[in-house]
Amino acid sequence: MTRVNINEILSKSGLKCTKQRISVMKTLSETSAPLTAEDIFEKSEDISISTVYRIVEKLCEKGIVSKKTIQDSDRFYYELVGSRHRHYAICLGCGEMKSVSICPMRAPDVNGFTVTGHKLEIYGYCAKCSAKAEK
Fold this sequence. Notes:
Distance between the termini: 37 Å
Structural class: alpha+beta
Largest sheet: 3 strands, mixed
């Protein structure tokens, strides 16, 4: 992932550069897939789960982080906005998410509708879950 200037991003958004916000942003910037608040909590230092939830919601409100849901899931996943455009393959067995290296969508013509984005998720089973099913 490209290096992000966390202090600059927070400052430009009018947010204080607190130790906890920097920790959450650092965790998100060092991952290749969206994380749940619980994942962020486990990877961040000296921060409570409730603080993680408050921070990711504030970062979403400021447009720094995007909040995603996955089909048939009640969990939210968070990822830095603008890091790069990505799609994911999601394992129905264990929930692992892998970034897909291509985007099959080009800007579609939708009869005068201005398209600002899209979401594509691919569902199936990872190699480990497929191997378990074969046994």
